[in-house]
Design a protein that fits this description.
Number of strands: 5
Oligomer: single chain
Helix content: 55-70%
CATH class: Mainly Alpha
Structural class: mainly alpha
Number of domains: 1
Order of helices and strands: HHHHHEHHEEEHHHHEH
Largest sheet: 3 strands, mixed
Number of helices: 12
CATH architecture: Orthogonal Bundle
Mean pLDDT: 90
Shape: globular
Low-confidence stretches: 1-21
Length: about 280
């Protein structure tokens, strides 16, 4: 184990400081798994049919055979910037946490997560469209619902949602705040019992399946302000820009875990509800 951790740290040292992808693969696949566990047999049947149209999308290097694949497909295709680079702004909506909440100024021409959730829901629900078009919308809907609920894809301090905030996470140094919330912190929160991927009863579901993508955006923005930034900056989310590297310690992890778990469950059940309605 010590040799593995040493190798991991060495590998991380050579990674470029690029922006992290929303929730990381584990988080996105967990959202999708919650959704598929809570949709109807009919919705599952329609999705299986749509996945057969994957070859028509022309992305052989990015698997698209299951809902789990669909949850990370939009991140995979971003590597092909010539074809898919225009989708990059769809993964976030950096709303200033120190100003009144306002989505529109941060979503020019619909280029943000919540607008793409609304847009792709409509496309998926249009049964007159061919399966390949609806499949693309399905993958985007699944992924951007996840991104929409990630607090650091919603809130910002003029630091690209924490991408510019140098931080250490336990024994892993030289990360950034966004990456930590997308990756190791999210993975730890999700994997902590009780298990998140399960069938939720109607009463449980009803308390989460409320509001609109704009309402969900505000929830995630508030979580970024009140939890992600507040914990990282020791209480004042709108305080001075940190002069030194931040340390996300065990107390920060404990204070953040429930928020992360809540956002994952919200995303999964709201996605399940949209899939039921669209399919």
């Amino acid at each position: 184990m010590l040799r593995f951790l040493t190798a991991l740290l060495a590998a991380l040292a050579f990674l470029p400081p690029a922006p992290a992808l929303g929730w990381g693969e584990y988080g996105h696949r967990t959202v999708a798994a919650i959704a598929v566990t809570n949709v109807s047999p009919h919705a599952k049947s329609v999705m299986r049919r749509l996945f057969k149209a994957a070859p028509l999308l022309g992305t052989p290097d990015c698997a698209l055979k299951t809902i789990g694949d669909a949850s990370v497909w939009p991140d995979c295709i971003r590597r092909d910037r010539d074809r898919w680079g225009y989708t990059a702004p769809w993964h976030y909506q950096n709303v200033d946490i120190c100003q009144p909440f306002a989505l529109e100024p941060n979503c020019p021409n619909g280029n943000c997560a919540y607008a793409q959730v609304e847009r792709n829901f409509k496309i998926l629900a249009d049964k007159s469209l061919p399966d390949n078009v609806r499949l693309e919308a399905l993958a985007f809907l699944i992924h951007f619902t996840g991104d929409l609920h990630q607090p650091l894809h919603a809130g910002d301090r003029h630091d690209r949602g924490g991408n510019d905030v140098k931080s250490d996470y336990g024994i892993i140094p030289d990360l950034n705040l966004h990456w930590i919330w997308d990756g190791p912190l999210a993975e730890r929160a999700i994997s902590t019992p009780p298990r998140l991927i399960r069938r939720y009863d109607p009463a449980e579901t009803a308390q989460f399946v409320t509001g609109t993508p704009e309402d969900w955006s505000r929830e995630a923005w508030e979580a970024s302000r009140d939890i992600a930034y507040a914990r990282a900056l020791d209480g004042d989310p709108c305080g001075p820009k940190p002069e030194s590297k931040l340390v996300i310690d065990e107390a920060d992890v404990a204070a953040s875990a429930e928020t992360l778990r809540l956002q994952i469950v919200r995303a999964g059940l709201r996605l399940a509800d949209m899939l039921k309605k669209a399919l």
